[in-house]
Amino acid sequence: MSAGKNAAEQSVTERIVYVRAQDGLKLGLRLYGEWHAERLPLLCLPGLSRNSLDFDKLARFFASHRETPRTVAALDFRGRGLSAADPHWRNYHPMVEAADVMAVTTALGMERAIVVGTSRGGLVAMVLAALRPKLLAGVVLNDIGPKIEGTGLARIKNYLGRMRAPRSWAEAEEMVRQINGRTFTEVSDEDWKAFTEAMFVERDGKLSPYFDPNLLKTVHNLDLEDAIPTLWPQFASLRSVPVLSVRGANSDLLSPAVVDEMARLHPAMERLTVSGQGHAPLLRDAPTLNRLAAFARRCDEHSPAV
User: Vertex 252, ends 267 and 122: CA angle to 5°?
Assistant: First the structure.
């Protein structure tokens, strides 16, 4: 179970920053904490329909850490959260999103970072391993791997396709609990509230999902009868980089067999299974955050490949 924000976390400075993508689209991100040159920053990349608010607890934990505070940047992919909608919905694609990450890190002067990628964000991290390997000082793959299970994809396609605008925050939270309650059995009321508040946005007194509705076209076009593409070569590009695989014990998107194969290909990879959570772990509970902090310290000490 996660606890509420402590005084140190509440005092963390949060700034909203906007950067232009390579095609001129406006991208938004949240920057937490002060710059610490002796420690690597964290760069957080969210899931398919999710956004930077998913990392608020994690970001405040790291930015206010008593022993090793560090800067955290949480990006909103185009069409999600603070970032502008793309008029061309086919640009909602991991290759374009990887290019957006490179544009953002260049604008921020962020030469190396520990990337925390949840689901879609982890896919983008693997693409970055092939496109800009020197950016990656370490990678946390949160409930994602080179191979995705069709069962989990079908579930995501189903619930996103049926998502409607709730009439109140109470109704929104009930909707989120109904969708996820079967696999998230060990989370607190505060976690459910934060999960919900990151999923919807209130405008003119009305709630709506916090992403461009055209994003759903990429989901509708998924043909689950076709073979699902894999990213094994991109994952192999991470062999010289510290990697932590986080898996929800109840996940239907990342199988234990895939994690085993990842560990075979990357023998130094660390593994963490989060009990009582599905796809994707919220990264809010103390044991998980402490494990991520230990991994980040390992990344600080790791010498980059020449």
Answer: 50
